[in-house]
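User: My advisor, Dr. K., asked me to get a structural model of this assembly before our group meeting. I'm new to this, so sorry if the format is off. These are the inputs:
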Amino acid sequence: MGSAAGERAVNVRGAAPKQDRSRATRQRLLESAVTCLAEHGWSGSTVTVVAEHAGVSRGAAQHHFPTREDLFTAAVEYVAEERSRALRAAIDRGPADEAAASPAYTAVRTLVDLYTGTLFRAALHLWVAATNEPQLGPRVAALEARIGRETHRMAVELLGADEREPGVRETVQGLLDMARGLGLANLLTDDSARRERVVAQWARLVEQGLQG
Amino acid sequence: MGSAAGERAVNVRGAAPKQDRSRATRQRLLESAVTCLAEHGWSGSTVTVVAEHAGVSRGAAQHHFPTREDLFTAAVEYVAEERSRALRAAIDRGPADEAAASPAYTAVRTLVDLYTGTLFRAALHLWVAATNEPQLGPRVAALEARIGRETHRMAVELLGADEREPGVRETVQGLLDMARGLGLANLLTDDSARRERVVAQWARLVEQGLQG
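Assistant: The format is fine. Below is the predicted structure of the whole assembly, which you can bring to the meeting.
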């Protein structure tokens, strides 16, 4: 009995690193999938390409994600959640010491920045591919809705918006649409100088819109 | 000499229908290319697919457009120009009798509508493909810049905006970014009800922004 308990203890000790390894592999695959999607697009991003990028065998990748669709929708969701967590932590820490910037400017700047990085590029490739791939369409539409709701909640918090006031909800929604459009405008060329001027002006207009 | 002149006359008469036919074929190819791109995406839109859709032989298609890149960049440019012409004619005719709508609302509505049809879908597929296709990238970036400038000019006219006033240029730009973002939001699901509410609110914000 003493020996059996000892064996269990060993198993428990042995199981934890194995689970950790499995989780680390999964995370590497998810992060690699987003990187590959952003860099090579949907048609260039096969499971094999992602597995290679992650330094994982194709079999191990398929153990975690049976289909290509599983891998890429999970990847965009995972990275979006990681980003939400980071942004929420930043919100909880409170505003940084940006002497000159108004709170509305800082909020608009932060939201617009969400749409200019690797995640937006990856998501865009997935959204566009989903328009022509029947097995991808409904899953990506559901994913887009989840990410959209979460981003909207964060925007409301960042802006300190009171959505009970008429027009405020639509002001926030339109701002996120603008941020998405600015992301699109940054796809082929560096649009940062123009974007900066648009952010400065629209921070003022959004501030007015939030007053209901 | 009389006979030679007669021959020339026949040639001239014979040449006109041939040129017309050639131009009609070219137009059919361009319109088919945009339709195919919107429906099947870049990877599903080969020259063969477009030629078939247009009812033209592959050889004839290649006579007009030596490469796939030629065909699709020309197609998006052609359809964008056709749309500009139609919109300019509508602007010249003056506002329709929309009793309840403010001029700003009508202008914002018209601009947003530019980004919800077949042309936007086709252009989006081309833009996204251009991020991964070196032979497409610079051409599409140049095309995007040309279409963007023309759309901005039309927006300024439609809104009656005075860009010498501070902030007005950025108000118009941000509005077009928002319109592009709304187009993206309409890609996988019918977003028209939400879009309508955003347009109503943003028309008010734009009106304030245009006052400088």
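One thing worth pointing out at the meeting: Residues 1-10 of chain A have pLDDT under 50 and may be disordered.

User: Perfect, thanks a lot.
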